[in-house]
Amino acid sequence: MVEAGGRRILHAGDTLFHGFWWQARARRGPLDAAFLPVNEPICDFPHKQPASTLPACMGPRQAAVAAHVLQAAVAVPMHYGAIQGPPVYAARDDAAEAFVAACDELGVASLVVEPGAPVPLGELVA
Q1: 61-84, pLDDT tens digit by residue?
Q2: Residue ranges covered by each domain of the chain
Q3: Which end of the chain has fewer surrounding CB within 10 Å, N or C?
Q4: Alpha-carbon gap, residue 42 to 55, rounded angstroms
């Protein structure tokens, strides 16, 4: 979590869903933006056996719930549509779309930004 210039932003990296979302919100308050992984990849790396059948990071619904719990003003999906290489790395194909739908269900504003494009937080968060 980064706080600067009156903004509070979370970049969750390759995070899994966990019970500390509530604690993070309690300690820091609501977020201006939460960047959350949504690709839900299943990894089967040859050098890490036996393989796990569990996702290596959050999926769309989990990320939307995390944004909701964190009271993020806007939720931005990460790690969608970038890497696909089954069976070694099998990511969810519809991750961004499913994230937006899950955010809509929870009343969380979402913004899908193409990889490498700037994020207009100043326009989104007053």
Answers
A1: 999 999 999 999 999 999 998 888
A2: 15-115
A3: C
A4: 5
Exposure class string for 95-117: b at 16+ Cβ within 10 A, else e: bbebbbebbeeeebebbbeeeee
Q: Closest Cα partner for 79 from 87, 68, 91, 67?
A: 91
**Contact criterion met (CB below 8 Å) for 28 and 8:** yes
Distance from first CA to last CA of the chain, Å, rounded?
19
What's the pTM value of the predicted model, to 2 decimals?
0.91
Cis upstream peptide for 50 (omega within 30°):
yes
**Cα–Cα distance, 59 to 118 (Å, whole number):** 23
**Location of structure tokens 């070694």:** 88
Closest CA to 10 of 19, 95, 25, 85: 25
Look at the alpha carbons of 119, 9, 122, 105 in this order and tell me if their dihedral is positive or negative. Answer: positive
Q: 11-21: per-residue pLDDT in tens?
A: 999 999 998 99
